[in-house]
Design goal:
Number of domains: 1
Low-confidence stretches: 5-17
Radius of gyration: 19 Å
Largest sheet: 5 strands, antiparallel
Number of helices: 4
CATH topology: TATA-Binding Protein
Structural class: alpha+beta
Mean pLDDT: 87
CATH architecture: 2-Layer Sandwich
Oligomer: single chain
Strand content: 25-35%
CATH class: Alpha Beta
Strand order of the largest sheet: 2-6-5-4-3
Distance between the termini: 71 Å
């Protein structure tokens, strides 16, 4: 019996450790940059839409247009892990909100998901800000 106990403890530790989860991250009301007012520069909502799509495409995000100031983004990683987000935006700021996922250990009751999802959202946020900065510097 003693010889089975260490193996059972190790198996349990691996099973628990393999199910990592973190509080879900939503990027809310993120300003594009501290640059001067975009209206003075003449950028339209469509310009921001195009920049967001370009930014996401760099990391495999595909977007569908849901109306003015609303995109739905989808990403598939290794054709195994899937996430869908709402991207709400205007000419001053944007938000990225969780919509759904597959194979990312999402737990709605605890508001948790695999930490890689949070990295994807953080990267998308940074990429959008960088793309808008490029557009404004243009």
């Amino acid at each position: 019996m003693k010889s089975l106990l260490p193996g059972a403890i190790l198996a349990l530790a691996l099973a628990i450790g393999g199910c990592r989860a973190a509080p879900i991250y939503n990027a809310e009301d993120v300003a594009y940059t501290a640059a001067p007012s975009t209206t003075a520069q003449g950028f339209t909502l469509d310009d921001y839409r195009a920049a967001i799509i370009r930014a996401g495409a760099k990391r495999g995000w595909a977007f569908t247009d849901e109306g003015p100031g609303h995109l739905v983004g989808n990403v598939a990683v290794r054709n195994k892990h899937f996430a869908t987000v709402d991207v709400l935006f205007d000419t001053e700021e944007f938000s990225i909100e969780y919509k759904s996922s597959r194979n990312l250990n999402y737990d709605a009751s605890r508001g948790e998901i695999h930490p890689n999802y949070n990295s994807w959202i953080s990267n998308l946020q940074n990429d959008i800000q960088a793309e808008i900065a490029i557009m404004k510097a243009g």
